[in-house]
Automatic annotation (TrEMBL):
Belongs to the ACC deaminase/D-cysteine desulfhydrase family. It holds the Pfam family PALP. It comes from Silvania hatchlandensis. GO terms for molecular function: D-cysteine desulfhydrase activity. Its EC number is 4.4.1.15. Keywords: Lyase, Pyridoxal phosphate. Residues 9-319 form the Tryptophan synthase beta chain-like PALP domain. This is D-cysteine desulfhydrase. The lineage of its organism: Bacteria, Pseudomonadati, Pseudomonadota, Gammaproteobacteria, Enterobacterales. The modification N6-(pyridoxal phosphate)lysine is found at residue 49. Its cofactor is pyridoxal 5'-phosphate.
Amino acid sequence: MHLARFPRVSLGHFPTPLEPLENISRLLGGPKIWIKRDDATGLATGGNKTRKLEFLLADAQAKNADVIITQGATQSNHVRQTIAGAARLGLQAKALLEQRVTDFGEDYQRSGNVLLDKVLGGEIVAHLPAGTDMQQAMEDYAATLREQGHNPYVIPGGGSNPIGALGYVACAEELLYQSSERRLRIDHVVHATGSTGTQAGLVAGFTATNSHVPVLGISVRAPKAKQEENVWNLASRTLDLLGVPGELSRYAVVANSDYVGDGYGLPTEGTLEALSLLARHEGILLDPVYSAKGMAGLIDLIRKGHFRQDENVVFIHTGGAAGLFGYRQVLEHV
Ligand SMILES: *Cc1c(COP(=O)(O)O)cnc(C)c1O
């Protein structure tokens, strides 16, 4: 595997820190928990999409794009980071937002990521109802821009295609480097999984390097079988892109969908507990859609004795704190 042969632009601060979660580990009395600070990638409040965008936006530049189109939920962290990355590279950015969540009033619709999208100079070209075929809507919009003489580059939701997943292949390499530098044996990697690029990239990276660190994705949306199938498909395509031969084992992909609750973007009791625990014992801000749901899964699994005491578990903080401001109604009473 030779990642340096893929075009890449520099958008974030890497390597991100790998830090012990001393207080939470002590509080839970389970394995030693480490946190990989991908919330600290630095691009307009950071997050996991920064790594993907280093490869995606380099591909857009290589194809001489002048405008970037992407899509996400109203409070999408991906849309915010894409707009920021495009701004850095002098590209226009247009976003289509899907109204997947309608329960949280004016702040959800206008503050948090949506506000930052505007501050960063992005244009929200459409607010579409939940269930819209967003990929098709982007293709249609791209066709309109082409008729006007533009050369648009379409980034799928979450930046999750093989090129975007290369960002998390790079993260797998970074983790392995940090692990050998500190002589830290990583027994498990746990993180929130949605559009699948993060987990697919990690699995592809740990497979291609023959290190086979187990990765557990805590789903924020899809049921287990569906999520695992989606991750496996993208991880397999990413390994193809990397030129790694052989078929990826189905067992390399593990998702847990027990913590989704009522649906995407709807925090559960466990989500809110995880969010407060990390805030109040570590001074770390999680987000109510992804990272706190992932952490809620990790906390519950620790309480159920899923990990041994002598194990090291790395939780990847995938970012999202900008979204907290969209959830004022829920969070001011926590
Ligand atoms: C997008 C996102 C995720 C999920 O990553 P995928 O690659 O889409 O699976 C997790 N956490 C945060 C904060 C995100 O914005």
